[in-house]
Design brief:
The protein has 377 residues and is α+β, with helices and mostly antiparallel strands. The chain folds into two domains: 4-111, Immunoglobulin-like (Sandwich); 118-375, Aminopeptidase (3-Layer(aba) Sandwich). The chain contains eight helices and 17 strands. The chain has helices at residues 118-129, 175-187, 193-201, 212-217, 242-254, 284-300, 323-330, 357-375, and strands at 4-6, 15-18, 25-28, 43-47, 54-58, 75-78, 86-88, 90-92, 97-101, 107-111, 134-141, 147-153, 161-167, 202-207, 258-265, 272-273, 334-341. The strands form three sheets. The protein has a seven-stranded mixed beta sheet with strand order 11-12-14-13-15-17-16. A five-stranded antiparallel beta sheet has the order 1-4-10-6-7, with no helix packed on it. A hairpin with a 6-residue loop joins strand 2 (15-18) and strand 3 (25-28). The chain starts with a strand and ends with a helix. Residues 170, 173, 263 line the site of zinc ion. Pfam families: Pepdidase_M14_N (PF18027), Peptidase_M14 (PF00246). Residues 114-375 form the Peptidase M14 domain.
């Protein structure tokens, strides 16, 4: 059986240079569709003979958006059409990344991280909508005309304390989709007393994919015109970032007591919430709330930690063009950028799966109680 490599599906991305010899398959990361300098995400299907070892060389890994992301990285593989994912032996010499795997079935999927596709998003929203406390509307449209969907979870008709979740500003950071599965699963469990108490005081506005064009294209960081949506919050426009514009205007209308913006970090092998640093105008009360939230989450989920983070001096950190600083300053929110690894959690490593969809779901599950500690008096 000759080798076949396919990316002609939702989120598929790799460039094939040569795929004749299974021991020397030469590939290149394909850049974001309108941002030629940003290459990192990959997801492809490889059809080959089971039992015949594969060696895949990604020759431009050293020129990717985050070359540090390949140090101690292991690629994700699925032998069953994306139902289960595990890690496989991967090495990086500073220039070329080499992935080794012996297929157990006729088609293997390889990906940067377990994908969370548009269908996965629709199924997650559809499942939530089986609950009468959940409703859905379309806030606007992406550059390519896809709907920007907002799931609202509210018990009763009276307005409650608004909490916003956003995921996929950086579309390759699929961790956010799995977090929302865990979060919504617990929030809507009518037998869970913490969820019931939380829904007694708060309502949840969930934008599960704010960048559907980027997700569909298999981009890491940008939308269909190359905009990094997490740099658009101060000056969003219909031409460049309609995805942010429609969400931002609705956030201004509803207000937000908490904003949780879900991300993945290419380099750091830890779960963390970005250091608030010196956001101008951030109040002592916001700092205190954040400290209490961190403490509550530490007690609930040992994947989360507060030791490793971005240095507070990152030059653009406080810029309100990012969602969390923007919502901190403009909405007075406790606004948090949640970062999860693409690699593994070095504090609690998992040799088989690395950082995984299940661990993302568990983190989302624990966000329910962490938010309850902040919002339920
Ligand atoms: Zn991100």
């Amino acid at each position: 059986m000759s080798l076949v490599i396919d990316t002609n599906f939702y989120g598929g991305a790799i460039t094939v240079i040569e795929a004749k010899d299974p021991r020397n398959v030469t590939l290149a990361l394909r850049p974001d569709t309108a941002a030629p300098d940003i290459a990192q995400w990959f997801h492809f299907r490889l059809y080959s003979t089971p039992g015949v070892a594969l060696t895949l060389k990604i020759v431009n890994a050293g020129k990717s958006a985050y070359p540090g992301g390949w140090e101690d990285y292991r690629a994700c593989v699925s032998p069953d059409g994306g139902i289960t994912w595990q890690r496989t032996e991967t090495s990086y010499d500073g220039s070329v990344m080499t992935i080794s795997y012996t297929p157990v079935s006729g088609v293997t999927e390889f990906a940067y991280f377990a994908p969370f596709t548009g269908e996965d998003t629709q199924r997650m929203l559809g499942k939530a909508l089986q609950d009468p406390r959940a409703s859905l509307d379309v806030l606007g449209h992406s550059i390519q005309g896809q709907p920007i969907q907002r799931l609202l979870v509210r018990e009763g008709s009276a307005k409650k304390t608004p909490v916003w979740f956003t995921a996929r500003q950086h579309p390759g950071e699929s961790q956010g989709g799995f977090v929302l599965q865990g979060f919504l699963g617990r929030l809507l469990n009518a037998a869970d007393p913490v969820s019931r108490a939380l829904l007694g005081v708060a309502e949840f506005h969930v934008v599960a994919d704010i960048n559907p064009d980027g997700t569909r294209a298999g981009n890491l960081r940008t939308n269909a015109v190359g905009a990094n949506l997490n740099r658009e919050w101060e000056a969003a426009t219909q031409e460049r970032s309609p995805e942010v514009l429609c969400v931002r205007e609705e956030m201004k209308r509803t207000g937000a007591s908490v904003v949780m913006d879900l991300h993945g970090d290419e380099a750091l092998p830890y779960v963390f919430i970005v250091n608030p640093g010196d956001v101008p105008g951030m109040t002592n009360e916001q700092h205190d709330r954040r400290q209490r939230f961190d403490k509550a989450l530490l007690g609930l989920n040992r994947d989360f930690q507060t030791e490793y983070n971005y240095p507070p001096s990152r030059p653009d950190h406080a810029a309100v063009k990012k969602l969390s600083p923007w919502a901190t300053v403009n909405l007075g929110a406790l606004a948090m950028t949640v970062e999860m690894p693409f690699k593994d959690n070095a504090n609690l490593p998992d040799p088989t799966e690395g950082w995984s969809p299940d661990k993302c779901r568990r983190l989302g599950y624990d966000f329910v109680a962490a938010l309850a500690s902040d919002l339920v008096k």
